[in-house]
Specification:
The structure is a single chain. The chain is mainly beta and 54 residues long. Helices cover 0% and strands 44% of the residues. It has a 3-stranded antiparallel β-sheet, with no helix packed on it. It has a two-stranded antiparallel sheet with strand order 1-2. Strand 3 and strand 4 (42-46) form a beta hairpin. The radius of gyration is 13 Å and the shape is flat.
Length: 54
């Protein structure tokens, strides 16, 4: 989920019945460019800021 102020939240679980792990923060995602490589690597960038999730 992305809020208008740039903060975000996501939840992940490793299995169907496992408890969720919630992550939240204030990264500048609004307006960021997104690239997904064939191996599934996600790169977000905005100005001088970038984040890669492998």
């Amino acid at each position: 989920m992305l809020h208008a102020d740039g903060s975000w939240a996501r939840a992940t679980a490793t299995g169907y019945l496992d408890s969720l792990t919630v992550h939240q923060g204030g990264l500048p995602l609004c307006g960021a460019r997104a690239r997904i490589d064939p191996d599934g690597t996600l790169t977000l960038s905005r100005g001088a800021w970038s984040l890669t999730v492998e």
